[in-house]
Design a protein that fits this description.
CATH superfamily: Vanadium-containing Chloroperoxidase, domain 2
Radius of gyration: 27 Å
Distance between the termini: 24 Å
Helix content: 40-55%
CATH architecture: Orthogonal Bundle
Strand content: under 5%
Shape: globular
Strand order of the largest sheet: 1-2
CATH topology: Vanadium-containing Chloroperoxidase, domain 2
CATH class: Mainly Alpha
Number of strands: 6
Length: 569
């Protein structure tokens, strides 16, 4: 029967030897223990007859417990093994373009146009195909910047779906209207990095961006009545992303972390500071050059514009925003001047088994340590899944490399099949007027990381962690005492406007973090959107598997997915 130990499974000779050795060691220790206990009796202390054993406490015998532990683990493995294996289609660009202009190659050597050395690219593909550690060590690099962890995509995990059992759609191509529209949006995000979110309704750059994006034939960002507006531009794709301020409360509210009350002030980059806008610096970085330190504004501020958000996601601990969100929800009414030993948390999901218990509260299961641990567990499993997509499936070029294609086309240095709407956009023209090149301005001196663009690590972690939090807390709860930064970003003021619910603000923080990477010039909109859905599925599978591990009755997790549908696990 499925989930039952197999009586016909044989123990290998090496396992038998280990068991025999372990038994001898155990019996030897038992003999020493018996002698010690006898000695205690001789001293007038309690002897062997008073030494108890816990075998009579608990619903299972030791053998039964061991067998149930095996069955639960085997059942989880069987559940995952029986999931339908997905196809992993690509957009075909790697085969379509022999010079690999539409694929990730940062860190490898390139020619004067920024096209990858094909022999070096072949060493990367060889390693990805063979999976041999020695082949990864033999990849030909350029100026020394190392590739980021491609072997992570080959790792297995002991819980949740295997990384190869989940898929995301093919990435948009450089010639498509969607691909061109995505890069057009990134040019506008770079041009608007210093515009305060509070000024979007009146700022001329935002107005020009809306006009330009509305000309695109396949732009998939949010809109109002079919048009991109100052209230929808650069936001996430869920309905909740359009409610209230651009930034989630979980990135502004003070964080009650234990005995600390931490204001979410960040050190950000001075206005007007962009990188890799000249071709020489851009080419050096494609070849693997690592720039040094950069300067920060000496005044800490609350996130108030896209440049701030880009710097936030430049230095974050990847799951940091969701750990912070969790801590805020666990102490939703905490203040810096008073403390309750029994803090008020945001309301829990109706499926928490301790919600209506008359005698118990959760702790290691369905309590504070449990949810804090789940957030981090979801993050590490999300990374393995998306790293498989990045390296072994899609290998999508980063936006900074796409900007290099635009530069070469616009200067007639090369002929590439770059989308015409992108080439003719006002965003590209304004970028040239500002910088003297058509390269996509980068928020980081090093540009993008040394791993492919699609899917997005931050987005997949966001999707997984936010889904865990939606399962744990009541998504309909309205966040009390919401805030918004002052015009200079140095203080917080009371917010007035539409109610901000936990579910909407969790969707929004996921979008803020993922799209913050877009604001830096290192990811595309589809990277964000397909990746949060990938992370969501990872978390759902984790929660589904884990239900068999608990003794509590009536466990249920209700989640509103990113597409707006609701499921109960």
């Amino acid at each position: 029967m499925d989930g039952e130990p197999d009586p016909n499974e044989k123990t290998s000779s090496s396992e038998s030897s280990r068991e025999s050795l372990s038994r001898r060691k155990f019996l030897g220790k038992l003999g020493k223990t018996a002698a010690t206990v006898a000695g205690l009796g001789a001293l007038g202390l309690p002897g062997l007859e008073s030494v108890g054993e816990a075998k009579d406490i608990g619903p299972l015998t030791p053998d039964g417990r061991r067998d149930d532990a095996y069955r639960i683990r085997r059942k989880g493995a069987l559940f995952e093994s029986r999931q339908k294996l997905p196809q992993h289609p690509t957009n075909g660009e790697e085969d379509l373009y022999p010079n690999k202009i539409a694929n990730f190659s940062k860190g490898l050597p390139h020619n004067s146009l920024g096209e990858v050395d094909l022999a070096a690219y072949a060493t990367l593909i060889k390693a990805l195909k063979s999976g041999k550690p020695a082949d990864f060590e033999a990849i030909t690099l350029g100026l020394g910047n190392k590739l980021t962890n491609p072997q992570s995509g080959l790792a297995f995990d002991m819980e949740g779906p295997d990384s190869h059992q989940l898929a995301i759609p093919p990435a948009p191509t450089i010639a498509s209207a969607q691909g061109g529209g995505e890069l057009t949006e990134l040019y506008w995000m770079a041009l608007a990095r210093d515009v305060n979110f509070l000024d979007y309704d009146t700022d001329p750059t935002i107005a020009a961006a809306c006009t330009d994006l509305n000309k695109l034939t396949d732009f998939l960002g949010p809109n109002s009545g079919g048009s991109v507006t100052p209230d929808t531009i650069f936001r996430g794709n869920t309905a909740g992303d359009l409610v209230g301020p651009y930034i989630s409360q979980f990135l502004w509210l003070n964080v009650p972390l234990g005995a600390l009350s931490i204001p979410q002030l960040i050190y950000t980059v001075p206005a007007g500071t962009d990188y890799l806008t000249d071709f020489s610096s851009w080419l050096q970085v494609q070849n693997g050059f690592k720039p040094g330190a950069y300067n920060l504004d000496s005044t800490p501020r609350y996130v108030s514009n896209l440049r701030d958000m880009a710097e936030w996601v430049h230095m974050d601990a990847l799951y940091q925003a969701y750990l912070t969100a969790c801590v805020i929800l666990l102490g939703i009414n905490a203040t810096a001047t008073s403390r309750n030993p029994f803090p008020t948390t945001a309301p829990l999901d109706a499926g928490n088994p301790y919600l209506h218990s008359a005698t118990q509260s959760g702790f290691g299961t369905f309590g504070v340590p449990h949810i804090l641990t789940l957030v981090t567990e979801a993050a590490t499993r999300a990374l393995k899944a998306v790293w498989y997509q990045k390296w072994f499936v899609h290998r999508r070029l980063r936006p900074e490399a796409f900007g290099g294609l635009v530069q070469n086309v616009m200067t007639a240095a090369a002929t590439y099949p770059v989308n015409g709407e992108l080439i003719g956009s006002d965003a590209v023209a304004q970028t040239f007027n500002a910088n003297g090149t058509y390269l996509l301005p980068q928020a980081f001196p090093e540009g993008c990381p040394t791993h492919p663009s699609y899917g997005q690590g931050h987005g997949t972690v966001a999707g997984a962690c936010v889904t865990i939090l939606k399962a744990w807390f009541d998504e309909s709860f309205i966040i009390p005492n919401p805030v918004v930064p002052s015009a200079d970003g140095t203080t917080l003021n009371a917010y007035s406007g539409p109610a901000l619910t936990v579910g909407n603000e969790l969707n929004k923080v996921a979008a803020n973090i993922a799209i913050g990477r877009n604001a830096a010039g290192i990811h595309y909109r589809s990277d964000y959107w397909e990746s949060v859905k990938l992370g969501e599925q990872i978390a759902i599978d984790m929660l589904t598997e884990s239900k068999a591990c608990f003794n509590e009755a009536d466990i249920g997790f209700t989640i509103t997915k990113f597409d707006g549908t609701t499921i109960t696990i």
